Amino acid sequence: REIEKVFKERGAKSAAVIVMDPATGEILALASRPTFDPNNYGKYPATNRRNFAINDAYEPGSTMKIITAAMAMEEKVVDGESRFFCPGHIKVGKETIRCAHGRAHGSQTFAQIVENSCNVGFVQVGLDLGLDKYYHYVKAFGFGKVTGIDLPGEASGILVPEKKAQQIDLATMAFGQANAVTSIQLTTAVAAVANGGILMKPHLVKQVIDNNGKVIKKCDPEAVRRVISEETAHQLCLILEDEVTLGTGQNAYIEGYRVAGKTGTAEKSKPGGGYLSNEYIASFIGFAPAVNPRLVCMVVVDAPQGYPYFGGWVAAPVFKNIMQDALHYLEVPMYKSQENNKTLEKVEYVLVPDLVNLPLAEALSLLNARGLQSKVSGSGNIVWQQTPQPRTKLQPGAQVIISLSPYDKDDKDGEVTIPDLQGKSMREVAKILSDLGLHLIPEGYGLAYDQSPSAGKVVSRGSSIKVKFQPIGE
Questions:
Q1: How far apart are CA 54 and CA 147, in angstroms?
Q2: What domains are there in the chain, each with its CATH number?
Q3: What confidence category does residue 105 fall into, taking pLDDT thresholds of 50, 70 and 90?
Q4: What pLDDT, on the 0 to 100 scale, is given for residue 82?
């Protein structure tokens, strides 16, 4: 019902949903669209007879960050004290990788790069892991080969050949590009995180019974291997719970339950290399309850039409509707706090986004998407200040005051003297230049160490200033 609805309403090319018991690997529900009538299959195109959840591989995007996070936590590459700086982009070799959000996240904890789905942060995590460890874990989680599910035509997915992999491959694999996976592979891998670290073989058939009711074949749960420790799995589950309560997965929240998961909005590769500019795969994978999960559910929608096309907007609500019904049907008890034995209720608040240095139109769009009102002060096109500050918790409908840069006006008449920017962060530099009506062209990340034109030069408002940054200590 739900997958049919989103498939039709969003005019998607394909869509699929998988619901699994993470403890056993048993497939409790599986649906794929487009579909066909098996009694009149000749009337349908051959593509309709494909099971999108099993037969087709695609680059998963940010849902794959769950697996990268599991690797990094297991290898102790990251911990609760780890911090990552996102200037909006990062250079790997000759290639520049930009954060999907199009702007800098600044300094973040590891949990925050998951919550913010920060590509730049995950590139840094992947490079810290290294190729050998990455391939060890990605294979251990079952990618690159069939899961062995009892359905025909299962695809094995595609991994960049290990011997040919370069640092740029590692960087992109870390946030879900370069490798292609199937929905059943990813569901099985995430189920291993949900169940405490054990990869289970997925199976659709529970048992076979003859005409007399005698069981002639029984499919017992089959553990493939332990891939991460129970402690790593538990800690990652808590991080993924924050992704749903605070991050991009808020539309997957189910009142009364602790829900964990991850959104994905993946670019679609095109024949001959590169990516399509106007087609995406929107997905969400998650589980509930977040501790001792009963169900894992993955929703994938190929090429949804219209805006927004993000996984958090397209797939997460489908996950919510399916899981809400399933949890109630299975009589999974709602969460009750130990303090007052009251059923968990969703805290009705949203986090204020960081709007400083954004174009006004984009800032207003971000506030509207989070259900916040806006009051604009001043004239210009660039946000200069905001009240309250980023990451402040507000109730939906609350007001955020935006002050526009007094120097960023349509007329660029007048001249300004360029200040000395050395030693300042990218955020500080961006604000200083914006206040002066100048545009920043950044290179690198960290603290400013060089600028062109140099300090003291006089330029016209509206000019561009190139500033080079380097990490602290280099």
A1: 10
A2: 2-211+218-329 (3.40.710.10), 350-404 (3.30.10.20), 415-470 (3.30.10.20)
A3: confident
A4: 85
Distance CA 434, CA 429 (A): 8
Provide the residue count of the chain: 474
Residue 379 has pLDDT above 80, yes or no: no
For 82-236, list the strands marked E by DSSP: 83-86, 89-92, 95-98, 106-109, 181-182, 198-200, 207-209, 215-218, 223-226
d(CA 367, CA 203): 44
Reading the block at residue 32, the tokens are 């794929």
Name residue, tokens 């997905």. 283
- Of the candidates 162, 204, 206, which has an alpha carbon nearest to the alpha carbon of residue 187? 204
- Catalytic positions are 62
Summarised one tens digit per residue, pLDDT across range 198-218 is 999 999 998 889 888 888 888
The predicted model scores a pTM of 0.73
CA atoms within 13 A on the CB side of 108: 25
Cα-Cα end-to-end distance for the chain: 56
